[in-house]
Known about the structure:
408 residues, alpha/beta, Aspartate Aminotransferase, domain 1, Aspartate Aminotransferase, domain 2, seven-stranded mixed sheet, binds pyridoxal-5'-phosphate
Amino acid sequence: xxxxxxxxxxxxxxxxxxxxxxxxxxxxxxxxxxxxxxxxxxxxxxxxxxxxxxxxxxxxxxxxxxxxxxxxxxxxxxxxxxxxxxxxxxxxxxxxxxxxxxxxxxxxxxxxxxxxxxxxxxxxxxxxxxxxxxxxxxxxxxxxxxxxxxxxxxxxxxxxxxxxxxxxxxxxxxxxxxxxxxxxxxxxxxxxxxxxxxxxxxxxxxxxxxxxxxxxxxxxxxxxxxxxxxxxxxxxxxxxxxxxxxxxxxxxxxxxxxxxxxxxxxxxxxxxxxxxxxxxxxxxxxxxxxxxxxxxxxxxxxxxxxxxxxxxxxxxxxxxxxxxxxxxxxxxxxxxxxxxxxxxxxxxxxxxxxxxxxxxxxxxxxxxxxxxxxxxxxxxxxxxxxxxxxxxxxxxxxxxxxxxxxxx
Length: 408
Ligand code: PLP
């Protein structure tokens, strides 16, 4: 084989979370007696809610009976789940969409990573910095990055988000074809308010820019003034795709289920001016390359939208929110500058004395046996920060914070 995708040759070293895992593994081998606590990777700790387990059992039993067995399902998801999502996530918030504009998948990572296949090779991509690495890497893998130098790709437009601009990305001066936005944000834990989001929608409409909006942390929003969906902004259905996931809100990080909204009003053009529907393109892509999220998982996901399911999930959510409150308070009591954490499970911590993200990561691992995520792994503007997550148990979160305060 002599003709591989040369974009892979230009990719920088290991994926952030693999490098974190590698350093933790080495530390554990050297200190087997230590109980390392992770406030690092954003994985949940609470088990699945009873309503979800019940639905899973029911669906498993259905698969064991000839009359209810299901084989291949619709690639874009079963209608029962698409309808439940439509009703709960959108119609209940006054957002008018249709069920077949919602595509069910095995999680947002695949959808976010795959969606860029619809863009031209020369499309200009804008990313907030810091950013969830998949947005950047998936475009770079398809050759849209250019050259990688000093932590940045030459063809990608970066929108720095730091304490200086309250982590609000500024509207780009040169027009990108696509911009990725994430609110509540991973990693900074901050949100885009209604006004800021409306400015982005207006910009996208005026500049023919597509917004890819990641809203999987919307359940953490505690203030009604903050939009949960970009479609709460009028006109957004003509310029935005929205990605959601049950990973963090319903504990599906292992079970795997996400969904992507691609409104039929969205139009896009080829370089020679040929107009296509992004909805039709995504449908075509999914039908060709994907055979659908498992039936039993979709039944489990459906349970997340029932009354008992909702109530149980809100209880779990409040555990994580209480952890986030505890983390914010403890960090500030230690005299650290901490951001996010209010409408989000992530606290974005400025390193003390502006030491580098990886130095602070190593310090916390070595001295406190606590794992965080180095901010620089999310982009150049993340240097000098680390991300802490609220997904561990309250007891271990408390202990981790006590250990951190002892080693600072
Ligand atoms: N996008 C962002 C911004 C995320 O934070 C995550 C999960 O951490 C994902 C995508 C992936 O989510 P999923 O588990 O649904 O694949």
